[in-house]
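[step 3/7] fold_predict: job queued, chain A
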Amino acid sequence: MTYDAVIIGAGHNGLVAGAYLARAGLKVCIVEKNDWVGGAAVSRELYPGFTYSNCSYVSSLFRPEIMRDLELPRHGLQVIPYEGGAMFTESGGYLGMHRDHDANRREFARHSARDAEGYDRYSRDVLRHCRFIRPLLMRRPPDPASFRPRDLSELAWLGKQMFGLSEMAMYDMIRFWTMSISDYLDEYFENPVIKAYQAVGSIIGTALGPMSPGTAYILLHHAMGDVDGNVGAWGYARGGMGSITRALASSFKAVGGEIRTGSGVEQVLVRGGRAYGVALSDGQEVLGKRVLSNMDVRRTFLKHVEARELPDAFLKRVRNFKTRGSSGKLNIALDRAPRFTALPEGAPNIKGDLHFTDSIAKMEHAYDDWKAGLFSRDPFQDMMIPTMLDPTMTPPGKHFMSCFVQYAPPKIEGRDWTDTDRDAFGAACINQIETYAPGFKNSILHVEVRTPRELEAEVGLTEGNIFQGELTFDQLLFNRPVPGYADYRSPIRDLWICGSSTHPGGGVMGAPGRNAAAEILRDMKVPARDMSDAYAVL
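[step 4/7] structure written:
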């Protein structure tokens, strides 16, 4: 049997692309190496009765247009907004954050009256940047070197958006995209704890420190999502992050899509410069009129396509595409809720994101360890206890804690991670938590520790990079993944890329998969049933 499309990888972008193609009437097969679907957006029971979101852990970026098009709520998806968060200080205090802007302003005033005033300006300016970037998420980036009518039209549209800004806003936009988050926050705030909390989104998942140019945009990448229409809000997928991909798989199957788990791909089959299927690791072949890869661009073209099928210049750019891993993850089953000594009893902040790194300088020191090829002994952790709002993930009275950790290098001083390294990394993170929540260690029932080694081996994230490639300015828009191929195509006919290596980048967003499907259907001149208008998205 020959399918209309074969998709490599049942991660969320592969499932999104498959669902759109299947809804347009195409016969689609997704092949997945693991025995489960989800890629990095997965829920697994690794300790009896406990459901872990063992890679991605919060939801905001997933596009509401895709939720509507694919009817994901009907397939069981529910996202629960969470209640702010807290930054704990070495002195025993804390900065609390809330969903309400005025509550945050009052909390900022407790630390700095000047920063409370600056918070209004900061929120306004970040929202302006979000409003500019959000319409770009569901559009194919134009090629500025192309004279094709569509590229010229898109360039004209982009120019119109830019010139719709005031002169000062245009200058601020260009500065924002290229400056460090440290420099950017200095223009609004003076208190180090407030600056540290605002900088959190700028270092998540990236091999850069808060003083590195380009980190201001990474903050924007984490601020431009929404939950129930509230821009910048974050939430928990009820039942864990696997609920997103389970709903996608259900939507895909409901319109005739087929998923083959336990089917790892050995090679993309190419004949006469055209892809015609995939060869699986067990020797089987799955044939298709087109192939979509949800793997990152380096894994796709350097490991699963014969080099002779690709131009040398393209291969060179792919090899130079930055996929430096910088993150690790702990998933912890708890016998009881932790008691953080700084937080008042019953404070709602424990229901959101929790951090110990109370200054940008401490964040930068953790990054210094990464540059030396070491995991940080005093790491930055983004901690969540989703069971504070979602009791479905654990037995009654028990809790699940997710700890996303910066910085963990892809190799330790140039060598591969060992189990001993992994255990030491986990111990450093747990010891840090114990300092702020005495007795925490005694409440631990089970711990899963994941370094870049585990993220690459299980999920297929090269070097453990959660975005399938850094979100630096040189790897965005028409440069993502490489110049000339930002339209989800490749040098091989009918071989497409639909993962987070493509525009608009990483996170559980779904836009790369949706955009790739839109390009295929446009090429085929097939009506895209149930697909939101790509050029009417806000």
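[step 5/7] annotate
The first helix runs from residue 12 to 23.
Residues 40 and 55 are 5 Å apart (CA to CA).
exit 0
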